[in-house]
Design goal:
It comes from Mycolicibacterium peregrinum. The chain is of the alpha+beta class and 379 residues long. 51% of the residues lie in helices and 15% in strands. It has a four-stranded mixed beta sheet with strand order 1-4-5-8. 51% of the residues are buried. Bound molecules: flavin-adenine dinucleotide.
Length: 379
């Protein structure tokens, strides 16, 4: 049953209706096949872009939808409920445009933002390296200034949409220590940039995650975003918004698992009654429903603070932690509701459980979220 959302405007209600329509027609018919066969759904992101769903929270001035973040996140949740991998890709696309939008010079925005937000280009976010995940400040991919260029050398890891994206928001080393990292906007076809083969993942099979290799790749110096050395604070500020996206994706996965579980519990009978009518199972479903509703409320609270221009970094970490832990628990319990068949590929719940796991890991593991939250508690 569709979630009965509290939305702030007719525009927002129309957007949710549009998203459900696109999800019904574009995502739902192919998700099972593409996830099973690990095929990339060429054209699907472009269809979302054409429907205006790839740049909802960005300002209209640059071709974005001008929607409040809480509306964007609820749209994202609806997409992820149908296809988590696409929800993640949409969230990462938004994350990748944040540095240019928030830190770019006016002239850079005029040059690149309209194209990035028009919906026909896909963005990726390239912070992680094989030896620098949680400890992002340890990254070593180098950007060395040479005349009008930066020369890029080194490896990046774990790039969502690696090899498929049109631009990469790259964080590379221009100096020593945490103040020696800078942010660049790299075109996907840059000479000297190549990609590894897609990682063989537990879930999110339809969208590739790859390494990237820079081998004396020469990038125009005017593709530096912000100032030299500002990269790490740009990366972290983008992640505050991105974590809310991951929270919304996690709630979408959890909602989809809950819906499947409730449907099955109303059909399956044991001991002469529907399994939902056994109190032990009914209470399990009640706890799942409560977890989904409270996780949604947590990300919406953080998003509304963001929309009001209030600090929201701690709340974004709380939302990511609560929503992704809830998704892991709810999807695991959904498999339980299905009994033996829940452990087969005949039903979507096993996929939801595999998909929920990554939300506890990327854009800062949940241990790192606790670190951020505990730092916020210090005097
Ligand atoms: C499918 C997928 C997609 C991804 N997409 C992207 C992407 O698009 N762009 C990108 O840049 N990155 C991406 N990542 C990378 C992801 O953000 C990192 O994997 C994540 O931040 C964890 O880093 P790590 O894997 O190096 O783990 P590590 O940092 O090695 O951590 C290992 C374990 O130690 C724990 N740990 C580490 N430090 C601490 C500490 N101080 N206190 C307590 N515990 C700690 C961690 O929580 C974890 O449990 C992706 C990863 C995956 C798997």
């Amino acid at each position: 049953m569709p979630v009965d959302r509290l939305l702030p405007s007719d525009d927002a209600r129309d957007l949710i209706a549009l998203t459900r329509d696109v999800a019904d027609k574009v995502l739902d018919p192919i998700v099972d096949e593409y996830e099973r066969d690990e095929k990339y759904p060429e054209g699907v992101m472009a269809q979302l872009g054409a429907a205006g769903l790839l740049s909802l929270p960005q300002p209209e001035q640059w071709g974005g939808g001008g929607q409040p973040y809480d509306v964007y996140l609820q749209v994202l949740e609806e997409i992820a409920a149908r296809w988590a991998a696409i929800g993640v890709a949409v969230s990462v696309h938004s994350l990748s445009s944040h540095p240019l939008l928030a830190y770019g010079a006016e002239e850079q925005k005029q040059r690149w933002l309209p194209g990035m937000l028009a919906g026909d280009q896909i963005g990726a976010y390239s912070l992680s390296e094989p030896q620098a995940g949680s400890d992002a400040a340890a990254l070593s991919c180098k950007a060395t200034r040479d005349g009008d260029n930066y020369v890029l050398n080194g490896s990046k890891a774990w790039i969502t949409h690696g090899g498929k994206a049109d631009f990469y928001t790259l964080f590379a080393r221009t100096g020593e220590g945490s103040k020696g990292i800078s942010c660049f906007l790299v075109p996907g076809d840059l000479e000297g940039l190549s990609f590894g083969k897609p990682e063989e993942k537990m879930g999110l099979h339809a969208v590739p995650t790859t390494s990237a290799f820079y081998d004396n790749a020469r990038l125009d110096a005017d593709r530096l975003i912000g100032t030299e050395g500002q990269g790490l604070s740009i990366a972290f500020s983008a992640l505050d918004s991105g974590r809310l996206g991951i929270a919304a994706v996690a709630v979408g996965i959890a909602q989809a698992a809950l819906d499947e579980a409730v449907r099955y519990a109303n059909e399956r009978t044991t001991f002469g009654r529907k399994i939902i009518d056994h109190q032990g199972l009914g209470f399990l479903l009640a706890d799942m429903a409560a977890a989904v509703v409270s996780a949604r409320a947590t990300y919406l609270d953080a998003a509304r603070r963001r929309d009001l221009g209030l600090p929201y970094s701690t709340q974004a970490s709380v939302a990511k932690l609560i929503a992704t832990d809830a998704a892991m628990k709810v999807t695991t319990d959904a498999v339980q509701v299905f009994g033996g068949v829940g452990y087969t590929r005949d039903f979507r719940v096993e996929r939801f459980m595999r998909e929920a796991k990554i939300t506890q890991i990327f854009e800062g593991t949940n241990q790192i979220q606790r670190l951020v939250i505990s730092r916020g508690l210090g005097s």
